[in-house]
């Protein structure tokens, strides 16, 4: 899988993932010139075009952006919602589990909530 962390995603989680898995394919929205400092609809459109799963802590703006994306284009990247109250170690494990145990056809537009339970 290819991943995109939105601008407010916890960098401790990203650092932990990168320490555990060399070459893990994740970019931060603020590091992509085309979407740096843009709103959620632009970030989600870029993620969809570039086949990336979006990591976010913010459903209040990302869910409406996803609904609009699906309405306008009939496709949208999946979103993984991570409550910011979850322990960093648990989040790292769950993202790695999703990455390792899924194939691209498992993913569809929608929201996956961590923890997986």
Number of E strands: 5
Radius of gyration: 13 Å
Give the strand order of the largest sheet, numbering strands 1, 2, ... along the chain. Answer: 2-1-3-4-5
Total helix count? 4
Helix content: 40-55%
- What is the global morphology? globular
Largest sheet entry: 5 strands, parallel
Mean pLDDT: 92
Q: Could you tell me the strand content as a percent range? A: 15-25%
Order of helices and strands: EHEHEHEHE
Instruction: Determine the structural class based on helices, strands and strand pairing.
Output: alpha/beta
User: How far is it from the N-terminal to the C-terminal residue, by CA?
Assistant: 21 Å
Regions with pLDDT < 50 over 5+ consecutive residues? none
Describe this protein's structure.
The chain has 117 residues and is of the alpha/beta class. The protein is 41% helix and 15% strand. It contains 4 helices and 5 strands, in the order βαβαβαβαβ. It has helices at 11-20, 40-49, 59-73, 88-100, and strands spanning 3-5, 26-28, 53-56, 79-82, 111-114. Strands 2-1-3-4-5 form a 5-stranded parallel β-sheet, with helices on one face. α3 links the parallel β3 (53-56) and β4 (79-82). α1 (11-20) crosses α4 and α2 packs across α3 (59-73). The protein is globular. It starts with a strand and ends with a strand. The model has no long low-confidence stretch (mean pLDDT 92).
């Amino acid at each position: 899988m290819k991943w995109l962390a939105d601008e407010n995603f916890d960098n401790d989680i990203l650092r932990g993932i990168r320490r555990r898995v060399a070459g893990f394919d994740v970019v931060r929205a603020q590091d992509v010139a085309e979407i740096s400092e843009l709103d959620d609809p632009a970030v989600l459109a870029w993620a969809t075009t570039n086949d990336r799963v979006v990591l976010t802590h913010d459903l209040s703006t990302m869910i409406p952006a996803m609904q609009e994306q699906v309405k306008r284009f009939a496709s949208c990247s999946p979103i993984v919602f991570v409550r910011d109250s979850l322990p960093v170690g648990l989040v790292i494990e769950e993202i790695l589990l999703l990455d390792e145990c899924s194939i691209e056809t498992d993913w569809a537009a929608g929201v996956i909530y961590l923890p997986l339970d």
